[in-house]
């Protein structure tokens, strides 16, 4: 503001002083020329001849003094007459304007780079000041000296404004720095917090608005850190609880599975009553379902604890896919397309889990037509395995959350064979390999899951 004020004051001063210099030169010239005419014009005849006009301009040229103007005179529609061959320099339109004017007419113009001033003064009848005599005198002179005065004024304004600008910039920089430094610290702290450093705080000094903003930021950061710590603690407790419960349930479930297996044999041999055999079959199914759920929970707990490890082996991908389907008696229910001789370095047990989850879901929810397609991309050295079905597809509202834990495709199915952890476990196994697992709805109908894994050692 100080710099702008200094420059504005200098510009305004220059403009006013320049106008005053030019106006003074203009008024002085008109006054001098009018005074000379008032003393010389009464001696002219009523209809002056060219020689009379030449004598008049000669005397006017001599009376110009330091101004060194050049004068010319014209009577009515006659020619422009000067004392010498050099007539007054007149800008366009001034002669026409002066011929009809009753007062002096002034016009500024340039010749090259030099400013000039031209004056047209009509001579009135001595006895009738309001009636024009028909005689008009023109004068023009250079404003070079006035231009030098204006240039000197510009230099003086520049010389005066420069120290003000310099002296204003220094405190302005200190003031701006004192304002911007807290803002920069606040921005840096916000970036640190966005990167996860919730323990970030900024140093607050003073009692101004920026200090209040800093204290508000520190309070917000403390609240966020406390909430995040509490959430992490609750999440850790929940995971530990799930892992502990799953571990504790394994022993009784193993015993229950063994007992229901023996009773299943008795039911199959006809040694039990039909009602008892039916009830026993229900208990056996629920026991097996609970066992699978516990195993899934324990597997998720291993991923959460970072205890899941890969046991890689170079395997034939086609053989691995066929073994997975044959183990679950799905070989006749899925159309397999795997190029022969395709090999990859991976953990066969974990890929088996992923493939079993994908094909099992497709068979349960997508109809009997399940397609398993495997391709190797040599360009980026990756294995692409896709499982597609011909069912209704995944609801759009569920699709973004299909790999979340305990997510089921149909919320109306309050109870199903799945635990809601299968796809979450499949996605974790894909990430453990350094790959990805994605889900989309095919334009032709049905859902399609795509597993992408590195072909070589991760």
UniProtKB/TrEMBL annotation:
What is the top-level taxon of the source organism?
Bacteria
Which Gene3D superfamilies does the entry link to?
1.10.287.130, 6.10.340.10, Histidine kinase-like ATPase, C-terminal domain (3.30.565.10)
Q: Where is the signal peptide?
A: none
Record localization: Cell membrane
Kindly report the protein's main subcellular placement as a broad class: membrane
Name the coiled-coil region(s). Answer: none
- A Pfam family matched by this chain, by name? HATPase_c
Q: What UniProt keywords are attached to this protein's entry?
A: Kinase, Membrane, Phosphoprotein, Transferase, Transmembrane, Transmembrane helix, Two-component regulatory system
What name appears for this protein in its UniProt entry? histidine kinase
Q: Provide the species name.
A: Streptomyces albiaxialis
């Amino acid at each position: 503001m100080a710099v702008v004020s200094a420059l504005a004051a200098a510009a305004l001063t220059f403009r006013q002083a320049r106008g005053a210099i030019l106006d003074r030169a203009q008024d002085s010239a008109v006054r001098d020329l009018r005074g000379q005419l008032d003393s010389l014009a009464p001696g002219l005849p009523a209809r002056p001849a060219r020689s009379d006009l030449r004598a008049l301009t000669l005397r006017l040229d001599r009376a110009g003094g330091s101004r060194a103007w050049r004068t010319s005179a014209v009577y009515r529609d006659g020619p422009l007459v000067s004392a010498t061959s050099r007539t007054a320099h007149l800008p366009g339109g001034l002669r026409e304007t002066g011929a009809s004017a009753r007062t002096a007419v002034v016009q500024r113009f340039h010749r090259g780079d030099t400013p000039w001033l031209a004056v047209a003064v009509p001579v009135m009848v001595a006895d009738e000041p309001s009636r024009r005599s028909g005689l008009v005198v023109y004068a023009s002179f250079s404003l070079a000296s006035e231009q030098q005065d204006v240039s000197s004024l510009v230099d003086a304004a520049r010389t005066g404004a420069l120290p003000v600008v310099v002296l204003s910039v220094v405190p302005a920089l200190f003031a701006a720095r004192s304002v911007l430094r807290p803002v920069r610290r606040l921005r840096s702290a916000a970036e640190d917090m966005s990167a996860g450093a919730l323990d970030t705080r900024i140093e607050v000094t003073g009692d101004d608005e920026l200090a209040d903003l800093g204290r508000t930021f520190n309070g917000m950061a403390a609240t966020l850190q406390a909430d995040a710590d509490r959430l992490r603690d609750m999440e850790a407790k929940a995971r530990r609880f799930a892992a502990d419960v799953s571990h504790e349930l394994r022993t009784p479930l193993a015993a229950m599975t063994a007992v229901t297996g023996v009773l299943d044999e008795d039911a199959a041999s006809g040694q039990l009553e039909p009602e008892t055999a039916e009830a026993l079959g229900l208990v056996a199914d629920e026991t097996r379902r609970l066992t699978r759920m516990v195993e899934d929970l324990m597997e998720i707990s291993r991923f959460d604890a970072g205890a899941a490890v890969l046991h890689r082996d170079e395997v034939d991908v086609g053989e691995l896919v066929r073994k997975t389907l044959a183990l679950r008696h799905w070989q006749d229910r899925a159309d397999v397309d795997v190029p022969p001789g395709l090999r990859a370095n991976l953990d066969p047990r974990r890929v088996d889990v992923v493939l079993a989850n994908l094909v099992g879901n497709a068979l349960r929810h997508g109809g009997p037509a399940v397609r398993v397609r495997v391709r190797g991309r040599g360009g980026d050295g990756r294995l692409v395995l896709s499982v597609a079905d011909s069912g209704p597809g995944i609801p759009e509202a569920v699709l973004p959350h299909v790999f979340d834990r305990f997510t089921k495709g149909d919320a109306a199915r309050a109870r199903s064979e799945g635990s809601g952890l299968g796809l979450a476990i499949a996605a974790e196994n894909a990430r453990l390999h350094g790959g990805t697992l994605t889900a989309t709805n095919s334009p032709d109908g049905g859902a399609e899951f795509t597993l992408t894994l590195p072909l070589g050692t991760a």
